Amino acid sequence: MRIAIVGGGVMGCATALALAGRDADAIVLERAVPGAEASSAAAGILGAQAELHGRRDDGDARLFARARAAWAPWARELRDATGIDVGYRVSGVLRLALGEADRDELARDVSWQQSLGLRASLLDARSAREIEPELTPAAVAAAFFPDDAQVDPPVLLRALVAAAARSPRVTIRSGATVQGLLVESGRCIGVRLDDGELRADATVLAAGSWSSLVPGLPASLPPVRPVRGQLVMLDERPPRVRSIVFGAGTYVVPRGDGRVVCGSTMEHAGFRKEVTAAGLSAILGGAVACVPSLGAAQFSSAWSNFRPHVDGHAPLVGASELPGLFLATGHHRNGILLSKLTADTVATAILGQL
Ligand SMILES: Cc1cc2nc3c(=O)[nH]c(=O)nc-3n(C[C@H](O)[C@H](O)[C@H](O)COP(=O)(O)OP(=O)(O)OC[C@H]3O[C@@H](n4cnc5c(N)ncnc54)[C@H](O)[C@@H]3O)c2cc1C
Which residue of 59, 72, 222, 238 shows the fewest CB atoms closer than 10 Å? Predict the structure, then answer.
C-alpha cells in the first residue's frame, strides 16, 4: 500500500512515520526541503492550557490535553530511533495579569480548567515571582499551567527527517512540487509532479498555508490562509528565565541554555515573509515588559513564517469529501502541539478505509 503526502512539514513527516509504524509505505513530496516553512519556524510551545485563553471550549481543552499527553512518549521514541533530543521539557507556563481586568479573566480561565480536571492555579504576584524571579513587578497575578511544555522545532524536524531516513517504509523527495491532484472517476488516485504522475492508494494534503493552492481539491474544502508570525531569538547569558511567560501580547520561551524565543505577531500579510520594524518593536517591547532582565540580552536573530489558518473552522484532519484524499492541515497556532495526535488520527483514518 502506497500513500502520497503533499508537504514535508511536521504534519507530512509525522504522518509518514505514523503510516510506516502501521506497515504502510509513505512518500513525502516536498517542494523545498522538509521543514522549510512554518514547522521549523515555530516557537515550539506545547500550550495545551495556555492556548485556551479566552475561548473556554471543552472540546478544544480535551483535544489539546490529549495532544500534549502524546508528546512525552513521542519525544522518547524519536530519541531512541535517532539519538536526537527534540528539546521536550515540561517548563510550565505563567500567563501574567498586568491589571485587575486581566486578573479576573485569568481567574475565570483557571476555574474553568480546574472544573475539567486540568492542573491550573491563580497565583498572587509574590507566588508567581517565587516560580519565576525575573517577572516584572507590574504583574498583579499570574495563571500557572505547570503541565504545559515545549520542544525545539528545528531540532524536531531534523529528528523526523532522520527517523524517516532510517525507516524502510518512508521516502522523502525534496524538490518535488505537487502540481495538482490526479482525480479519476470521482476518486483521488495520486498527484501530478513536474516530471510525471505518482499514483497512490491514498493522498494526504499536508501543504500548510499553501494547501488551498494545490489544484484539484474539492470546491467545498474551506480555504487555508496564511497568518504571518514573526519571532525573535535572544541570547541571555547566563540563562535566568526558566518558565514560558505569556503577557503584554507576547510570549517568552526560554530554551534553558540561554536561547530565548520571543513572539509573536498575527498578521494577514499574504505570503510576504518580511520581519518588520513594527513587528520587532511589539515583540521586544512585550517581552521586556514581562521579563525586564531580557532588556540586557543579546539580539541573536529574527524570522517569520505562516500559520495555516482556516477561518471559523477547526483544523482539517482525516477523510475529505473526495474519496482517496485525506487532510492534515490548517492547524494555525497549534500545529506543533497537535502534530503527533493528527498524524495518528490521519494514519488510522487512511488504513481504516483502504
Ligand atoms: C511564528 C510561528 C510560531 C508558531 N509557534 C507555535 C507554537 O509555539 N506551538 C505550536 O504548536 N505551533 C506553533 N506554530 C504553528 C505551527 O508552526 C504550524 O501549525 C505547523 O508547523 C504547520 O505544519 P504544516 O506541516 O501543516 O505546515 P508547514 O510546516 O508550513 O509545511 C508545509 C510544507 O508543504 C510544502 N508545500 C507546500 N505546497 C507544496 C506543493 N504544492 N508541493 C510540495 N510541497 C509543498 C511547503 O514547502 C512546506 O514545507 C507557529 C507558527 C508560526 C509561523
Answer: 238
